[in-house]
Amino acid sequence: MRKMRRLTPRKIFWNSVHYTVLTVASFLVITPLVLSFFTSLKTPIEALRGSKTDLPADWFNYANFVTYLDGRPVGLAFYNTLFVLVFSLLIAITIGTMAAYALDRFRFRGRGAILFTFILLMAVPGITTQVSTFQVMSFLGLVGSKWSLILLYSGADVVTLYIFMQFINGISREIDESARIEGAGYFTIFFKIILPLLTPAISTIVILRTIHIYNDFVLPYLYTPRVEQSTVSMLLYRSQDMMSAASEGALMAGIMMVIVPSIVVFLLLQRQIVSGVMRGAVKG
After folding, report:
1. Beta carbons of 40 and 256 less than 8 angstroms apart
2. How far apart are alpha carbons 269 and 248 in whole angstroms?
């Protein structure tokens, strides 16, 4: 039978502080979502006359959702976002895993410089490089194309590389050597042995990158300005003309349509997200 730990006054005090901070933080995060949901179900008159915290009179009033779907290219925005996501993730995973494999398994001249450069780039704020990045994209003729987003999202950042390297480092080198004795080449070892063992790390990166790309506003704003290229973040930006009281409910309905997929995915995959990040940190 497990012994009950005795709570000291000091322990009780710090537990109270922790729970208070967590409660306040949860309240600050959840309250705007709840109020947006309430507003999305209200009629224009309810939104105009009542308070933000008032409950909707009809919990099954979906008129605002229909209004937003009729007036905005919601389907096109989700298609553009999915198109960018799929190609970006495929390229990023391919480049990231192969780069991590080479940096972890081989010792060559310049390896230390490459790792140092990745770490150094962490200290450079991304927003300060946007002018030069835009000039490069303009030179390549990719401004105004979804492929500019795919190219920019496909790079293996230091977090991606770090997680992949930690997982590859945990794979015994004896497996590589056994395969080499059997006559397997480096590409065979990578694609048939290393890559399948990286499934947990790949899942973690896919989830983290999907959340980042789905929520990003800066790059779509700079590189895909036309309506037919809008991602979900630009869809909401272009809905700012619906800020009047009469159309606020429809705007909140649009926000809920964009938020719900990311919340559902996070709730379904939260264990994989937390365990993947924790395993990468522990192995580091």
Report:
1. yes
2. 32
* pLDDT tens for each residue of 180-193: 888 888 889 888 88
Length of the chain: 284
Which ranges constitute the DSSP H helices of the chain? 9-40, 44-49, 63-71, 74-105, 111-122, 130-139, 146-153, 158-169, 173-181, 186-189, 195-197, 199-215, 218-223, 232-237, 248-283
pLDDT score at 5: 64
Cβ–Cβ < 8 Å for 204, 276: yes
CA geometry: angle at 257 spanning 252 and 263, to 5°?
110
**CA–CA gap between residue 136 and residue 104 (Å, rounded):** 31
pTM above 0.90, yes or no: no
Q: Is 209 exposed, middle or buried (0-12, 13-18, 19+ CB in 10 A)?
A: buried
Q: Encoding tokens for residue 245?
A: 């009281």
DSSP secondary structure string for all residues of 128-167: GGHHHHHHHHHHTT-TTSHHHHHHHHSS--HHHHHHHHHH
Helix axes 9-40, 248-283, angle to 10 degrees: 140
- Site of tokens 């700012």: 240
Q: Tokens in use for 160?
A: 């991606």
Q: pLDDT digit string (tens) for 67-90?
A: 888 888 899 999 999 999 999 999
Residue in 216, 241, 259 with CA at minimum distance from that of residue 85: 216
